[in-house]
Amino acid sequence: MASDRPKRAKNAAATREAILHSALAAFSRHGYDGIGVREIAQAAGVTGVLVNRYFGSKEELFAAAVELGFADGSLFEGESSMLAQRLAAKVISKTEKDVEPSDAFLLLLRSAPNPRAAEILRDSIARHFERPLQASLRGPKTGERAAMILAVCMGLSLFRNVIGSKALTDANAASLLGDLKALFQRLIAASASRKKRNS
C-alpha cells in the first residue's frame, strides 16, 4: 500500500542519506545482482530517476553504500600495542549468537560474486582496513600479514555467524577472545628471528 511507503525526505542531504541507507540495507540483504535501483528507490520513498540523479548509476550507488558500510575506523584509534585486543574483541562481539551479521560483512558475502562489485569491495577494504592495518605493522611482509589478519576476521565471522560452526558458536567467549588475540598478536609482531629469516 502507498501509505506504507516511507515519505520522501524534504531536502537534498536528507534525500541522499535516505537513498544511501536504503541501498546499504538492500545490497546487504540481496547482494549486488539481487536488487535493482527501482526497489531501492521505492524503499527510500523516491523514484529511480531521483536515485540516478544523486548517484549516476547502480554501480556508483553500490560504491557509496560500500563506503558507508566500511566507514568505521575505530579499530585504528588508540594505542597500537592494543590493536590485537581491539581486533579480537570486535570480531567476537560482532559474531555472538544473537547478533545479526554486520552490513559490511553481508555486503562482502553476497555481492563479491559479481566481478565489478568485488573490485569495488576490494578497493574499499584496502582503503579502510588493509592499508591502515599495514601501516600499523612493522617488520617484513606487512602487506601479507595485514591481509592474513583480515582473512582470519572474515573467516571466523563466516564460520561463527553464517555457517554456525558449533565448535565456535559454543566456545567460551573469553577463551576464544584470548586465542584470537594471541593469533593476531603473532601476525602483528615482527620478531628479530622473522626479520632475519625473511631478509
Précis, in short:
The protein contains eleven helices and no strands.
Walk me through what this model shows.
This protein is mostly helical and 199 residues long. The protein has two domains: 2-64, Homeodomain-like (Arc Repressor Mutant, subunit A, Orthogonal Bundle); 74-198, Tetracycline Repressor, domain 2 (Orthogonal Bundle). Helices cover 70% and strands 0% of the residues. The chain has helices spanning 12-30, 37-44, 48-55, 58-69, 83-94, 103-111, 115-136, 142-163, 166-169, 173-188, 192-198. Helix 1 (12-30) packs across helix 4, helix 4 runs parallel beside helix 7 (115-136) and helix 5 (83-94) packs parallel to helix 8 (142-163). The termini are far apart.
Low-confidence stretches: 1-9, 192-196
As for the CATH topology of the largest domain, it is Tetracycline Repressor, domain 2
Shape: globular
Number of folding domains? 2
Number of helices: 11
Main sheet summary: none
Helix and strand composition category: mainly alpha
Shape-level CATH architecture of the largest domain: Orthogonal Bundle
Helical fraction equals 55-70%
| Level-1 CATH class name of the largest domain | Mainly Alpha
Termini, distance in Å? 67 Å
From the alpha carbons, calculate the radius of gyration and give it in angstroms: 20 Å
Give the beta-strand count: 0
Q: What pattern of helices and strands is seen along the backbone? A: HHHHHHHHHHH
Mean pLDDT: 88
Please state roughly what percent of the residues sit in beta strands, choosing from under 5%, 5-15%, 15-25%, 25-35%, 35-45% or over 45%: under 5%
